[in-house]
Amino acid sequence: MPTIDVSLNDISKLLGRKIDADDLDDLVLFAKGELDGVDGDTVKLDMKDTNRPDLWSTEGIVRQLRGNLGIAGGMPSYEVIDSDIEVYADPELRSVRPYCLNTVIKGLDIDEAFLSQIIQLQEKIALTFGRKRKEVAVGIIDFDKISPPIYYKATKPGENAFVPLTFSKEMTPAEILREHPKGQEYGHLIEGAEVYPLLVDSRGVVLTMPPIINSEITGKVSTETKNIFIDITGYDIEYMKVALNVIVTAFAERGGKVYGVTVNYEDRKLRVPDLTPVEYTFSKGSVLDILGIDADDDALIDHLGRMRYDASINGDEVSVRYLPYRKDIMHPYDVLEDIAISFGYNDIEPEIPRLYTIGRMEPISIRLRQVRELAVGMGFQEVLTFTLSNEDNLYKKMNISRPGKVVEIENPVSQSWSVLRDWLTPSLLSFLSRNTHNDYPQNIFEVSEVVTEDGGNETKVDNRYRFAMAMCNSNANYTGIRECLDSFLCNIGKDASIVPLEHGSFIEGRAGKILIDGEESGIIGEIHPQVLENWGMENPIAVAELEIERLLK
Amino acid sequence: MVDNSDIDLTNDEKKLVLKLLNVDGKATVNEISDADFNQVAVNRAAMGLSSKGLLDIEDSSEKYLVPTGPGKDLIESVPERVVARKVLDAGSTEAYVDEMDIDKATAGIALGWLRKRGWASMDKTEGRLKITLTDLCIREVEGESWISSCLKEMLERDYPMSDLTEERFQMLKGRKAIDVREEKKRVLTLTPTGASVPEDSLILKEEVTQLTPEMLRNGAWRTLDIKRFDVSVPVRRVYFGKKQPYLAFLDELKSEFVALGFQEMRGPMIETEFWNFDALFQPQNHPARDWTDTYRLISPKKGTLPTSETVDRVRSSHETNWKYVWDDEKAKNLMPRAHGTCLSARQLYKGVSSPGKYFSIARCFRPDVLDKTHLIEFNQIEGIICDTSLTFRSLLGVLKLFATEIAGAEKVRFYPDYYPFTEPSVQMSAKHPDLGWVEFGGAGIFRKELTQPLGVDTPVIAWGLGVDRLAMFKLGIDDIRFLFSEDIKWLRDEVMV
Q: Computed from CA positions of residues B271, B273, B278, B283, in that sequence, does the dihedral angle turn out positive or negative?
């Protein structure tokens, strides 16, 4: 899902070999990505797995590629140095944004390429993995500008003013929410709470107001920065830990030294980052069966190593270890996919399954196709229109009142497509109204679904096919459309009786209800001049609409 | 004498013979044609007579001279003649130009031609231009101006170029007084046979435009001539019944899937979130379930869930694997279906055969604006294949089968991909001769966390094809809105076979 920009030079440097766009085009498959565009040194990559945030930056991709290129193998290892840095979380934030996780990274040498990855990874994690900062918000602070211990504290919206990033004057949290662009964009996550979260140091200097904005003084990272403080905030510690691990290991890949931090909550202490490997054991047979390839234990271990797992096989039991920046492994097939990726999807021979099955269309599909063919035979041009429509087209322009029950969308993209149509005739009129400059006669038909409320249904809504024909010409009239209707009904072996119909869309005395086997099955008539005027039509139109799906059952 | 009694001539051929007989058997096409008998008809009749040996046709082309506008002016007055006359009438053979009573324009032209024709010599003395007429001039001026009489004649009759000497032709041409017009002349001459066609063969038959039932009934057709048509002339465009091209394409596609052994699935257009997401193992806090990414209904708001047994199993699968609390009420929310995979999930629940192949072409809805590459509602082709023998290699094999059978592609390429309900997942591109590598479809093995709660234990491959892109390619369009075209002209013009 996320698209990221990476630098070819940067990747080449980290891998220790020259990689050009074509190389990356092939290699990025190992990271479940696809090349999306090249602009000189910058390459756009579409990283497809929304569950693999560890692959959303150059560092993670390089880590993966080292395995596939044979430069490194097995589970990577990162040292976490114990530090005495403490963070204290304010219990008052429990109902607002309860959790905070932190880590310090020292000894960084940041160049432009690295900096752009830091900014990008932060953004992608917060936006995509973090569900637009709700589940995870990320802040990166200049550690040299702050002085531990750090406090994740609750502040009243009107207190503790600080200078937010990109601004130059001090603002209170409330003001930031009102006036700062990030406050306006993300303020809804904390608005309405009595207190807002704030990270401050031992001197009361503000680091950041999660999940809104960092401080201009302490919360900026540049190529000069040597040591940083990471803050992750959110609602689910396990989920946040994954984000923290991804970011921490990315920095570690660039040579940063990772210092673990203790976060103190009311009821517990947490030491983070926790890079304890995850152990997972599964049956070799179950995986090989589905893979469909003959692979011996050595081959399997080799491939697992390339995909950055530590692996050992004991009979049918495969044990793997991997680092907890991956939370996507729930089932042996998740590991299986990695093995297949390592093999190379284009190096595995496809096998067309030889399965004896009898194909068939739904009977109604076949009958509807025959109906359409009959309509074509009667000289009508088939059209295809949208199911989505609007109140104006369906009722107002048709000179009838809106029915009591209408299937309507709560969050339409446009009011023009906000109601699901419950009849086809307006769609045909809409079509005809857009073709007044084309040759006449225009005889059109459509066989499509309409949607109506139906309380007895599992989904409370019914969608059923209707068949509607419209004749539009200088002399279009009831007789013409009735001839077509009768001829059609003959061909489907049905008899109809027509009784007079009072309907706002039709000319009085020129409209009928179609009764088949005693049931109301459709309407027929000449469209009322007011309706024609509403649609900007200058030619009369005669219409028939049938409940075709019901008729054919 | 040839026996001509059985000669069968068309009405026009008879007309031509009669007209030629009136002018001693010979005339040009131009001379024969008039408002009632136009050149095209005359020519056609001539061809017919010629093929019957009754007429000789001789084509020639003749060049004629006609005066131009300036040429016509010369009929009135030739400038150098005017000047020469003035000089002579004043009793002299020489004069100063500035003393002469002539306008500048005439003077300019006159002086030029006086010199060119050798009619005068000129010299400047003391800044004044003096002309001296030559003997040649005096001689020629006495005679009539051949120029104006010649040009006048050109107006009165057809003046063939051959009637004028080369010298005079060049002179008039140099003065831009004449144009050359080439006229093709076609001379028609009756042959002896043609000239002696018996009278009763020349009786004009009545000509009709339309053969009628009455003529057939009473045999009148035997004495009537049915007017010849120019069969090459185009007629007006007429429109008949026709399928919508995109729907015709989908009909074909359905047949192809049935031919491959697939059974069609159908289901509700408005779905519960349960079938659209939960049964497909998409957690309730997944971004794809956000406000901006799926439609919601104002009314009705909630549907019903399947059996509590199934619901409990799905709940358990979510809670164990995604680690959150699953909400029944959220699962009941109604929405227009966002993809065709709901139908696959429902099929698993209804029961699948093993082996079993299922497909559907389903109308789906996603919040999108209507533009060149997006529709507000679109079709998806999706389906499942179930069997104990299915493996990862089958995934690749199935996609390759579709590429070859449905798109006629020869080369395919596979990519790792990610879908929340399948693992492993594959995406495939197919090589098109003109477009190069094009994304064609994707497939994956349904996660066990998904199939087991729905009561299925055998491996299930789920696959989907980008049908709209395929349709656009087959219909030769690059704007996706054409699939739901509102343009009857486009629908009428689109080639179907």
A: positive
